[in-house]
TrEMBL record:
<dbReference type="GO" id="GO:0016020">
    <property type="term" value="C:membrane"/>
</dbReference>
<feature type="transmembrane region" description="Helical">
    <location>
        <begin position="213"/>
        <end position="231"/>
    </location>
</feature>
<feature type="domain" description="Major facilitator superfamily (MFS) profile">
    <location>
        <begin position="55"/>
        <end position="514"/>
    </location>
</feature>
<dbReference type="InterPro" id="IPR036259">
    <property type="entry name" value="MFS_trans_sf"/>
</dbReference>
<dbReference type="GO" id="GO:0005737">
    <property type="term" value="C:cytoplasm"/>
</dbReference>
<feature type="transmembrane region" description="Helical">
    <location>
        <begin position="460"/>
        <end position="480"/>
    </location>
</feature>
<dbReference type="InterPro" id="IPR050814">
    <property type="entry name" value="Myo-inositol_Transporter"/>
</dbReference>
<dbReference type="Pfam" id="PF00083">
    <property type="entry name" value="Sugar_tr"/>
</dbReference>
<keyword id="KW-1133">Transmembrane helix</keyword>
<feature type="region of interest" description="Disordered">
    <location>
        <begin position="1"/>
        <end position="29"/>
    </location>
</feature>
<comment type="subunit">
    <text>Homodimer.</text>
</comment>
<dbReference type="InterPro" id="IPR005828">
    <property type="entry name" value="MFS_sugar_transport-like"/>
</dbReference>
<keyword id="KW-0813">Transport</keyword>
<dbReference type="InterPro" id="IPR003663">
    <property type="entry name" value="Sugar/inositol_transpt"/>
</dbReference>
<feature type="transmembrane region" description="Helical">
    <location>
        <begin position="93"/>
        <end position="110"/>
    </location>
</feature>
<dbReference type="InterPro" id="IPR020846">
    <property type="entry name" value="MFS_dom"/>
</dbReference>
<feature type="transmembrane region" description="Helical">
    <location>
        <begin position="424"/>
        <end position="448"/>
    </location>
</feature>
Length: 585
């Protein structure tokens, strides 16, 4: 029997959409709230309840919307060409404007997510999705289409940040399924791709070609956002966020709704826990809108920034968006202009995108069930390595000289791709999609969320989203024009080099974050040579550099040294000669 809904969980009179606990202002409450947040995680049920599954499904629709928005570009491409007679630059802009919206909106999404809650942010984006779907459904021309795509990108940027934060915190009570919960977002992204491809194939057969793009862009987005809005209205806010903001009573109600079995015990042990802590914790909690700075976590910022760019410069997004164009070039010997304008998205070529969508979904589903067993780092290394090998196959397939055949009757000369080249292209595309689904797709979201403390998680995810989709806009806008200006193989060689560098960074600088609490991440990074004091490039080895993370660790080391000296004095174990040799960090 499913738990009863939480009464009065939404209060329209407050900006946060929640009843406020009685509070007194105290900025020092932040660490106390973090302590209770950690305690709350320990109180969550260690099994996946029906309520938790329901919340996960509704939150993951954000990923479904994102995947659908990306995948539908490929299916709508030929319809847009027929209807509006677009140039290659305009075609690239339809994809790039979506990523531009993602990049611009994500910082605001992260900030809103941290300040006003994960659930409320998701609900707001559903309304924005509905508005953009109407724009695209009735768009009279390319300018309105670009505006609608931009607004859809803005909504996706906020929704993804909110959904990942929400699921990370729902699953933080039991690390054994935290990875699976967060990975459902990427699984739903893959499902969104597949749904977009299947919808495109069906509409091509039953709907007028010139108008099918309206239904593809508008109707699907509006329907999915409405379903999520209806479902998320009944879901609770993240218990971790509630606890951090001082809503301890609401956090208990959310925990009970998620599935904690002994609610009386939760209240009793929370009371005991609070009395064991400092006097500040026993005072009424307060909502503080002053959030810690992410500059204190510079190493996490570097990891997030590198992975965000690596995720896009492996070229996966162009393989998914322009798969019909790539296969038209390899299997039908079209040049770039012919592949874009002369039927490259015909039904027989769209079937190739369906195959890629199925591969992506199946591999992501495998990760969903195995990520907590195999580990984040293992999957990241394996997937990034597979992407590198696959890109090498793609680059080689388009670099080998074409076969030359002569027509004896007409005397004409034909240039065709050999069977070897076609095999390399097919293996390269499939392998790149599979490798991405094994690593960058689901694991990067998970690493970013687990490397970030709860108090900055929304902003860190927003920072990641800005970089990754800014990179995606650049990569997608330069693919077709890059092939025209340089060669068919040139973009793939660039992606291959970037992918090799990314794999080396993962091996050297990325930790395994499974079964790791927020407070243990700094120690985990200290154990890696790349971030340790042994590395001469580490800024913590230079006292003149004053990044927030370095200052925090230096202060911690000074405190540990002072504590050791004080203990030695109290025990009488520090003689005069040792006292003169004491050095402070």
């Amino acid at each position: 029997m499913s738990p009863e809904p939480i009464p009065n969980l939404v209060d329209s009179s407050t900006g946060l959409g929640l009843d406020r606990d009685k509070a007194t202002p105290s900025l020092q409450q932040h660490h106390a709230n973090e302590d209770f947040s950690s305690y709350a995680r320990k109180e969550k049920s260690t099994h996946i309840t029906k309520s938790l599954i329901k919340a996960t499904i509704y939150a993951s629709i954000s990923g479904l919307l994102f995947g659908y928005q990306l995948g539908i570009t490929s299916g709508a491409l030929h319809s847009l060409q027929s209807s509006l007679d677009l140039t290659s630059s305009q075609t690239e802009s339809i994809t790039s404007f979506f990523f531009l919206g993602l990049m611009i909106a994500s910082p605001f999404g992260g900030e809103a997510c941290d300040r006003f809650g994960r659930r409320k942010s998701i609900l707001c984006t559903d309304g924005v999705f509905g508005f953009s779907s109407l724009m695209l459904l009735f768009a009279p021309g390319i300018k309105v289409i670009l505006m609608g795509r931009f607004i859809s990108g803005c909504a996706s940027g906020i929704a993804l940040v909110s959904a990942v934060s929400y699921l990370t915190e729902l699953g933080s009570g039991d690390h054994s399924h935290r990875g699976a919960l967060v990975s459902t977002v990427e699984a739903s992204v893959s499902l969104g791709f597949l749904l977009a491809y299947l919808t495109s194939c069906i509409l091509l057969k039953f709907v007028d070609m010139e108008e099918s793009w309206r239904l593809l862009f508008g109707l699907g987005t509006g329907l999915l956002s409405f379903i999520q809005w209806m479902g998320m209205r009944k879901m609770p806010e993240s218990p971790d966020w509630l606890a951090q903001m001082g809503f301890h009573g609401r956090a208990e109600e959310a925990l009970r709704w998620i599935g904690s079995r002994d609610t009386h015990s939760i209240k009793t042990r929370r009371h005991d826990h609070m009395h064991e802590e400092s006097p500040e914790l026993r005072r009424p909690a307060v909502i503080s809108l002053e959030c810690p700075s992410i500059s204190q976590y510079y190493r996490q910022v570097i990891i997030v920034a590198f992975l965000a760019m690596a995720e896009q410069f492996c070229g996966h997004i162009n393989i998914m968006n322009y798969a019909p164009v790539i296969f038209a070039e390899a299997f039908f010997d079209y040049d770039e202009e012919q592949a874009t304008n002369d039927g490259a998205v015909a039904s027989e070529l769209l079937s190739t995108t369906v195959i890629l969508g199925i591969v992506k979904f199946l591999v992501t589903t495998f990760v969903l069930f195995e990520v907590d067993k195999l580990g984040r780092l293992f999957l990241m290394k394996a997937g990034a390595g597979l992407v590198s090998v696959s890109l090498l196959c793609l680059a080689a397939g388009f670099s080998v000289n074409l076969e030359v055949t002569y027509e004896s009757d007409s005397g004409a000369t034909e240039y065709k791709h050999s069977s070897f080249q076609k095999a390399m292209v097919l293996i390269g595309c499939t392998g790149c999609v599979a490798g991405f689904a094994l690593s960058y797709g689901p694991i990067t979201w998970l690493l970013v969320s687990e490397l970030s403390p709860g108090s900055i998680r929304g902003r860190m995810l927003g920072f990641y989203t800005v970089l990754t989709h800014g990179s995606a806009a650049l990569v997608s806008y330069s693919f077709l024009s890059g092939q025209v200006k340089y060669s068919d193989a040139a973009p793939f060689w660039l992606y291959f080099i970037c992918s090799i560098v990314s794999w080396l960074f993962v091996v050297l600088a990325v930790p395994e974050t499974g079964d790791v609490d927020d407070g243990d991440v700094e120690d985990l990074l200290d154990e890696l040579w790349f971030w340790g004091d042994e590395n001469p490039l580490n800024c913590c080895t230079h006292p003149s550099l004053n990044c927030g993370g370095c200052n925090k660790r230096r202060a911690s080391r000074r405190g540990e040294e002072l504590g050791r000296i004080n203990s030695c004095f109290e025990n009488g174990s520090l003689d005069q000669s040792q006292q003169s040799d004491v050095e402070f960090v």
